């Protein structure tokens, strides 16, 4: 009796060895900086490639690069690990005797990965929506000022921001990222 294969069909398989060679060490360093534990970082990298292999049929190079996709998965796995250790701190003690800070906040690496993901998602929405979001949310400019610069009513700008954020959320979901 043959065991049922988990993951994609052989013809659709992600070249895990090549992906690991190209991105594994970088993912390990990211996880290590986030968690501060070498063993946990190794577990994260293993889980990233396992999830990537299982979901390789959902990877679309038109939506995001392999690197961006893997880092999005890594970000989710790191968050899962941090939550697991926060709920069960004794598991952390079994590995190396250190505890996670109560609220470590986002590190530079996590902010960088988030920025890559948002930038990639922004590329996938319309130019008018992208401009509205970038000017009002990312640059923090007042709606009235941006609307005057674009030569549109403030209500139109607000509508573009609203629908742009919906499109951005959808683009991120298509990339496999939880917004």
List keywords for this structure.
RNA_pol_sigma70_ECF_CS; 8 helices; elongated; 2 domains; WH-like_DNA-bd_sf; mainly alpha; Rna Polymerase Sigma Factor, Chain: A; 179 residues; disordered N terminus; sigma factor activity; Arc Repressor Mutant, subunit A
Structure description:
By secondary structure, the protein is mainly alpha-helical. It has two domains: 14-103, Rna Polymerase Sigma Factor, Chain: A (Orthogonal Bundle), CATH 1.10.1740; 124-179, Winged helix-like DNA-binding domain superfamily/Winged helix DNA-binding domain (Arc Repressor Mutant, subunit A). Helix content is 69%, strand content 0%. It has helices spanning 16-35, 38-54, 66-87, 89-95, 108-123, 127-138, 143-150, 154-174. Helix 1 (16-35) runs antiparallel to helix 2, helix 1 packs across helix 3 (66-87) and helix 5 crosses helix 8. It is elongated, with a radius of gyration of 20 Å. InterPro entries: RNA_pol_sigma-70-like, RNA_pol_sigma-70_dom, RNA_pol_sigma70_ECF_CS, RNA_pol_sigma70_r2, RNA_pol_sigma70_r4, RNA_pol_sigma_r2, RNA_pol_sigma_r3/r4-like, WH-like_DNA-bd_sf. It comes from Modestobacter italicus (strain DSM 44449 / CECT 9708 / BC 501). Keywords: DNA-binding, Sigma factor, Transcription, Transcription regulation. Pfam families: Sigma70_r2, Sigma70_r4. Belongs to the sigma-70 factor family. ECF subfamily.
């Amino acid at each position: 009796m043959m065991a049922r294969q988990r993951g994609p069909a052989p013809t659709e398989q992600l070249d895990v060895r090549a992906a690991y060679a190209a991105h594994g060490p970088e993912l390990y360093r990211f996880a290590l900086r986030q968690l501060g534990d070498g063993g946990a970082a190794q577990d994260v990298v293993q889980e990233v490639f396992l999830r990537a292999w299982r979901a390789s049929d959902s990877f679309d190079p038109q939506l995001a690069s392999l690197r961006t996709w893997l880092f999005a998965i890594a970000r989710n796995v790191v968050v899962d690990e941090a939550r697991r250790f926060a709920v069960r701190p004794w598991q952390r003690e079994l590995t190396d005797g250190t505890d996670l800070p109560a609220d470590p906040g986002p590190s530079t690496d996590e902010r960088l990965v988030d920025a890559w993901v948002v930038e990639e998602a922004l590329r996938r929405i319309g130019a008018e929506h992208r401009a509205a979001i970038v000017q009002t949310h990312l640059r923090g400019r007042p709606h009235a000022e941006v609307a005057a610069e674009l030569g549109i009513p403030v209500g139109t700008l607000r509508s573009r921001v609203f629908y742009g954020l919906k499109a951005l959320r959808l683009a991120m979901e298509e990339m496999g990222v939880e917004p």
